[in-house]
Amino acid sequence: MPVGGTSPLELKAISGVRIGTASAGISQTHRDDLTLFELAEQTRVAAVFTNNKFCAAPVTLAKKHLSLTTPRYLLINSGNANAGLGDAGIQAAQLCCNELAKAVGFKETQVLPFSTGVIGEPLPVEKLVGGLQTAVDTLSEKNWSKAAQAIMTTDTCEKGCSRSINLEGVEVTVTGIAKGSGMIKPDMATMLSYIATDMPISKALLEQMLKEAVDLSFNRITVDGDTSTNDAVVLMATAMADVAPLDATADPRYSLILSAIQEVCYFLAEAIVRDGEGATKLIKIQVEQAQSQHDAKEVAYTVAHSPLVKTAFFASDPNWGRILAAIGRADIERLDVENVSIYLADTCIVKNGQRYAGYTEEQGQQAMNQEEILVRICLAQGDYSATVLTCDLSYDYVKINAEYRS
Amino acid sequence: MPVGGTSPLELKAISGVRIGTASAGISQTHRDDLTLFELAEQTRVAAVFTNNKFCAAPVTLAKKHLSLTTPRYLLINSGNANAGLGDAGIQAAQLCCNELAKAVGFKETQVLPFSTGVIGEPLPVEKLVGGLQTAVDTLSEKNWSKAAQAIMTTDTCEKGCSRSINLEGVEVTVTGIAKGSGMIKPDMATMLSYIATDMPISKALLEQMLKEAVDLSFNRITVDGDTSTNDAVVLMATAMADVAPLDATADPRYSLILSAIQEVCYFLAEAIVRDGEGATKLIKIQVEQAQSQHDAKEVAYTVAHSPLVKTAFFASDPNWGRILAAIGRADIERLDVENVSIYLADTCIVKNGQRYAGYTEEQGQQAMNQEEILVRICLAQGDYSATVLTCDLSYDYVKINAEYRS
């Protein structure tokens, strides 16, 4: 169960995007593990991928295909990452693209492949190919929720979100889905996300909007500090909405549509942290008044990655000494220890680098008992701030990751 | 129980070092929590301290006293870190030094204070001072093991080690003790260590030897990546052995005595990891053929800190994909993915950046079932290597850190 519970997804269809799913037997459980996106002809596609140097075969291939032509299909499997397999992995991904291309009558370079699951096991190509026809046969604009389920691995719930805005009487929609729970950290993680809008947007602008949205959402979450070999976020614009094309940031509609995309990305990123492996609490680390953007992020991540801080949150223990110690070891140029203040929600626990005189353990306990906690760290050294989302470290994190694969 | 079990400490006395202990009631358990070292007059003392910017009051004071004069006493309490308390913490530490100085007839600057335990709770000065007389009354050369126990916090066993060498018919001895289990990472952690030798060594040389020994021992271990506010390692040379003073690295005895000190430091550092909070396995990450020392260390630490890698070791799961993914996200300039090989002990699991053809899960399983595991990562990019010691991440890590304080 994710922090904050679940509610059924109400995802709006995006004209120009059809989705099919199939149970190909790649995942060890009997459920859909194959997802196919079909994109209308004029769709523009932007994507960002993992920075991990051991990127998976499908990442290499998807990047290549995206640089060659405009994609018409996204082919996603869960249950196997097709990573760490060298040339054999590339060939396997290529074969899947080829088979799909044959089935739908397009070129294999118009297919972007994605995989998520166990690293280092050969991709069961035959099984995957065996599921393609079902995925094609089930293509429908209504399958966003099914896709949100089919891309899951250790996720405990599907993640999706829609936002609509009204542009001069025309409703324009953004719908996105995502998967990911462990291995989440900046520069993305075992995380896949697919976001589409019917707004007509030029490719250059689409790429810029994706970067802006990802930087403040998927790149600001962390569960365990690990980064995956397979991460990808794809933003698609089908141009099916009956409005004039968007191709300049000066267009007043730019910020409206960017906001909608950002909201969807932020919602999905937060949903991933809420579903963090074993998470019982959602923790927002907000660093304020830092000397630089780097310092603000560095302090926020050092606190967010500290296993001692994370276990204290799991135990609802207002052990602010652990937060203090994490701030103190952050790799920043200068820290004015005597300026640092720390708040748990509205409760001041550290003022001017030491325990706040008015602080009581009861206040701290009350703040820690909440399911969603804001940790505000004020450095009083400058004007920069950064916010990072994370979760606590529980028995179940160890359990899930010790048992995954078995 | 530490990895590898325990055996009773056989610690040799060091002429010129007397140790007393007392149960002052600072720790929540009824056991010795106060330790006093008394050093003979001609003793030289070198020390290294935490780099955490929120260093504890006793660290600030010990550094100051050490810069002013030659210490005659070390005063160590467990159960309270006296950290995060601002001026009040400094005053508390000063008061303790003053009271001891009065009791033994020396100046307060000749006392080095040390604390370890909970951060942010006021040091119970009265209790500590109340225990001083007992500590003084029990001073004896034979109390090394008692001291090893009295400095413990979440440690499950005391840690100590002696090495003797024969210099032209005279036996020279090095004895050291240490405490620490969680919060262990480079630049030290909630870690205290006291090492003494009867060898006459100049202060300048002693400082150099301590630095060399610490760099390859205490600075190469990691349990959870956190660094404490209170860490310190102290090296003392009493000059009581009847040999000529050592004051130059060119002296052929230099490398002999340095080796003995290094062995003691390495043994203690390894003992800390073996006793890592919740540890069930000792893991040695050895990175070879890196382009630079920085790269070798960075890769080793990225793997050693990965919660996914650490839980896989706990589960005895040969999930080499997690090791690969950790290497891939290490912050190094260049990684030739196709050159990387990974070995678990003698079992090759990854060759040239991909799963080794001759590797079987059975081999991996067998390697993972061991209590002590060597992970060898060969980058084939240069001549630098680095070794880091760590342990696995278990249910008990979470349990211990969720319950500490309560």
Mind explaining what this structure looks like?
In chain A, about 60% of the residues are buried. In chain A, about 35% of the residues lie in helices and about 25% in strands. In chain A, strands 13-12-11-14-10-15 form a 6-stranded mixed β-sheet. The two termini of chain A are about 20 Å apart. The first copy, chain A, has 2 domains: about 15-275, 4-Layer Sandwich (L-amino peptidase D-ALA esterase/amidase); about 280-405, Roll (Ubiquitin-like (UB roll)), CATH 3.10.20.340. Chain A has 11 helices and 15 strands.
Oligomer: homodimer
Q: What integer value in Å does the Rg of chain A equal?
A: 22 Å
- Number of beta-strand segments of chain A: 15
State the share of residues found in helices of chain A, binned by percent.
Answer: 25-40%
Q: What composes the largest sheet of chain A?
A: 6 strands, mixed
Short recap of the structure:
The structure is a homodimer of 406-residue chains. By secondary structure, chain A is α+β, with helices and mostly antiparallel strands. Chain A is 33% helix and 25% strand.
Secondary-structure blueprint of this entry?
The structure is a homodimer of 406-residue chains.
Chain A: E1 17-22, E2 34-39, E3 44-49, H1 57-68, E4 73-80, H2 86-104, E5 111-118, H3 125-137, H4 144-150, E6 159-167, E7 170-179, E8 192-197, H5 203-215, E9 232-237, H6 253-274, E10 282-290, H7 293-305, H8 307-314, H9 320-329, E11 341-344, E12 347-351, E13 354-355, H10 361-368, E14 372-378, E15 384-391, H11 395-403
Helix pairs in contact in A: 1-2, 2-3, 5-6, 7-9
